[in-house]
Amino acid sequence: MGGGRRRRQRFSRIHAFTCGKASFKGDHSLIGGPGFSRVVYCNDPECFEASLLNYGGNYVISTKYTLATFFPKSLFEQFRRVANFYFLICAILSVTPLSPYSPISNVLPLVVVIGATMGKEAVEDWKRKKQENKINNRKVKVHEGDGVLEHTKWMDLKVGDIVKVEKDEFFPADLILLSSSYDEAICYVETMNLDGETNLKQKQALEVTSGLHEDSSFQNFKAVIRCEDPNANLYSFVGSLEFEEQYPLSSQQLLLRDSKLRNTDYIYGAVIFTGHDTKVIQNSTEPPSKRSKIEKRMDKIVYFLFAFLVVLSVIGSVFFGIATREDLEDGKMTRWYLRPDETTIYYDPERATVAAILQFLTTLMLYSYLIPISLYVSIEIVKVLQSIFINQDLHMYYEEADKPARARTSNLNDELGQVDTILSDKTGTLTCNSMEFIKCSVAGTSYGHGITEVERALTWRKVSPLDSEVMEVEGQKEELKEEKLTVKGFNFVDERITNGNWINEPRADEIQKFLRLLAICHTTIPEMDEETGRISYEAESPDEAAFVVAARELGFEFYERTQTSILLYELDRVSGKKVERSYNLLNILDFSSSRKRMSVIVRDNEGKLLLLCKGADSVMFERLAKYGQEFAEQTKEHIAEYADAGLRTLVVAYREIDEEEYAEFNEQFTEAKNRVSVDREERIEEVAGNIERDLFLLGATAVEDKLQTGVPECIDKLAQAGIKIWVLTGDKMETAINIGFACSLLRQSMKQIVINSETPENKALEKSGEKSAAAVAFKASVLQQIAEGKQLLSSSTENSEAVALIVDGKSLIYALEDDVRDVFLELAIGCASVICCRSSPKQKALVTRLVKTKTGSTTLAIGDGANDVGMLQEADIGVGISGVEGMQAVMSSDIAIAQFRFLERLLLVHGHWCYRRISSMICYFLYKNIAFGFTIFFYEIYASFSGQAIYNDWFLSLYNVFFTSLPVIALGVFDQDISSRLCLKFSLLYQEGVQNVLFSWFRILAWSFNGVLNATIIFFFCIRAMQHQAFREGGEVAGLEVLGTTMYTCVVWVVNCQMALSISYFTYIQHLFIWGSIVCWYIFLIAYGAMDPDLSTTAYHVFVEACAPAGSYWLLTLLVLIASLLPYFAFSAIQMRFFPVYHQMIQWIRSDGHSDDPEYCRMVRQRSLRPTTVGFTARFEAKSKRSKERGGDH
Predict the structure, then answer these.
(1) pTM for the predicted model, two decimal places
(2) Region of 447 on the Ramachandran plot (φ > 0 left; ψ -120 to 50 alpha; else beta)
(3) Less CB within 10 Å around the terminal CB: N or C of the chain?
(4) Per residue in 439-459, pLDDT tens?
(5) Which residues are catalytic?
């Protein structure tokens, strides 16, 4: 349907949208007032009046910084972190006499750390800048005058420009549609980038401009548009066009930036909003700032270290003040080497208090090495590298759609290992959102033998009405596999009506009408592949595409749509051959959520007027004529069976209309469409409802929204990992429950607590129209059902039975109110699985917020549509499925994957690894800094808290930045306690993250204690061994520089070897970094010691001349290393043997060769199965347990 077919019939008669001249009512009276003051001079953007308005350009800025603001804004961001601000203060103080070290040695590490972080910010912003430039430099044809259009960059567009957008191009700004390649000035628009919907929207220009089909038509075109000011409302627009006369404009003429033109050769439009005034930019919001629980706890650790540092500084300054005050007693100098009789203020016994205060500032700088300056930047580097590994994991690559996993933010990698509750959408997330026509009921007879996933699951439920059919069809499985069709959207198997056999059925006339209705009653657009000649369909929903495909496969092929007709190839009952038939399309009565149905009115080739209708059973049966209900009871039974099988159903009906009735309807319908008032939609629905009556029932359709591959297996693994799974869906309760059985979220023995608003009493109150009384009754009913549910839950808990909670949308409204939500949540978290049906997008977000805030546990939301965005942003982690519902969910997510099943590997493997790595990394950072910092503190005790540093300035500066940082980064990137295969095999391992075993306060304090213990061993071994012992051949004892170098050597060896002991999985990179850091220390010591004494100061030739020749230096290093690591080694050995945690048990299994022993592994995995566990493994265990109990009774 290329877009060039022009017929003079008026397409405006078909769809319910405004066209032509209409009265100004409602909102249009506001034009010119506050909020409606925008004036656009079409085709004359440079005129004097337009220049006075000074509207913004079309250049869109998405970057965080500019060249001018990068340094001030980025520096401000860096120094908002308390640790960085503290080091900045230390850097400033380092230029004063108070400093215990040289300024350059203090400033350089800070510059390196801040520079690295700012560099990362700059790279990320440069990527945004490149994307921004790519969009701003796109080109579009713009009218430059004299009927000539030239290609112009998007960023150069101005309000009032006339642009020509061609097929499959994006709209460069918000436009008013003037005309299109169709005479009727309609066009088709894809809004996937705006709302995530893939269905096409139809737009139509005003009739007065619809004739502007050529570039030359705009040579003398001038018009003025007056409209609303820029705002964020995507679905409404109020304005007027002054062109000879005044005409009202609505959202039907509005084309939004970032929408795409589809199935239309070209359109002409006038630019009304540019750049940041466009509605899509007005709607853009900063994504919520999310931080992991580990990062929040890390901040607390840094604050604690800072407080501890202050305490140490206070202690040191107090003792220093006391010692300074007692330096001169009766004219005698206690510390004669400080010359307190000729000192400056720093050691003046007469001003000891001031000296103590100044000493406090000195020690505040000296003990700064307790706080790891490179911790934040190291973690950022590690998280970025972890994200790259996630992105490149081939096990999470979906080859069919060429979509890898994408970690859109690296901040939450470790949070993936701590998820307690998953809140999942159903359609498109658990299911494919790829509908297949699988069954139908026509004239009271059910057709279709296909087996759904739900039907297979239902065989476990003895109450299933389809058991006999399923068992019968299971016997034909192999035959069905061979016959399985490869047509997308069609999985129908029934020889009675396939291959044209329907003409031999007793009710062939009804079957013909049924299939013809499926081929006509839709808004689908056909597209022919020029190479293959195969027709594909652009449909508003996957359901509708499945109906049209089914009609085609059963003999009624829809192949062309014009403005006023639908053309089919039909299988003729008499001749048995396909014939071409055309149906004159008169009206389309569109589907809406309130109508729950759609209809078309057509005239067939015999001149009959037919109304063809399809819709939900809840609204269709009440519209049937008395004589049209011949098959009603059988159809209702079939619909109930289809719903039990997890299928989506629609009722199909028709009626003939006489000419007089249609003329009256059409007049009323046209009047309703041309209204420009608040009640326009209500009036259209009322008129449509008047003719959609006295229908004759033909039957019902049933389509399957198939489970995605691997969903039951994934849910089973996640459940064994102890993760709770909630399903939040907009589907009706029966469908959601049956999908729950298919996924094994529900099972036969599981008791169900159903909170449902559809009670007879509630329905009666609702019909009475007393809204306040109905609301009170609804709430009371919900509270009563929650109370009853809690009683059932408590009794089931005593009996170790699993319970499921199922809630409908209306009940959820009251369950989420402030005075009810706590008891509702208490009930929900006690249940094995929770399914919320008929949930609105807002309710999904509110449920997610409730679980997150009230339980304090980590929540993960996963969805694929625009209606899931709120839920994804509310959750601690939002995972978007890059499916067929557009990219809105992915754009709002933290991590994007192509299939639900990849969540298993994302959490159980990458989540566990990232959590363990980051936890170990922070604990190790804490350990190594405490070990280093306490050696400085212990020396201060020996030095009367004088502020004298034991280490050379550059030794201090390079400790965190160079000699110990790379092994920690390697740990954070490469370490594995368990292989990916065993992570998936023993799912309960994941609970280490949920229970925060590896980053508990006990473990943090244990590593801190290890640091203090190592510092004590290093310091006192060195000080005792070297204090009075001759160090050189000449008998000289060791000086400060030798003691400092020896202690520093011991620290470097101990912390790096401690790292080697902590690592579970060695790679050559870790070997290189650990042993390379130690080698680098010696190389640095030699190179730095060879420099001029003014530069190397206390390190001048200290290694070559003093330490290296002394055997005691090497022996002491070895003894200190062994003594320091021995406590950790002994503790680890005892814990591993007698008190192993779960990952250590699995390591034992692996080392003993039992990891492939099925019985042994099954025994270990039993620890992960509890009565409340869901999934098919737990279901089989529960069933076998019941069988044994029954056997025992006999």
Answers:
(1) 0.75
(2) beta
(3) C
(4) 999 999 999 988 876 666 555
(5) 425
